[in-house]
Backbone:
């Protein structure tokens, strides 16, 4: 099984939706742009948000098991995917890609 690199690419905050719909919370998200996690199989990397992992784990598993070209031509790099977590208030985009053997 191949290792998968998961890189935080972008976080968007929809303040208008937060103001209108979300109850105030102290702590929402720890992800930082540029942060990298390494997935080794089905195990969620330490420090990665549960919500993000739930959104990306099927793609991670597909790539880890040698799958590629998800959605037939979607990504320039056939061994990658761009996935966002399912937080509608502050979605984080992650670039996941196969780590090539050296």
Residues:
């Amino acid at each position: 099984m191949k290792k998968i690199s998961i890189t935080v690419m972008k976080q968007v905050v929809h303040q208008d939706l937060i103001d209108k719909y979300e109850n105030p919370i102290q702590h929402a998200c720890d992800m930082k742009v540029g942060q990298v996690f390494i997935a080794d199989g089905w195990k969620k990397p330490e420090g990665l948000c549960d919500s993000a992992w739930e959104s990306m784990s099927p793609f991670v598993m597909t790539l880890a098991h040698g799958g590629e070209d998800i959605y037939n031509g979607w990504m320039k790099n056939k061994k990658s995917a761009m996935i966002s977590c399912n937080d509608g208030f502050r979605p984080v985009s992650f670039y996941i890609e196969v780590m090539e053997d050296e």
Q: What stands out?
A: Helices lie at 15-21, 50-64. The chain has a mean pLDDT of 93.
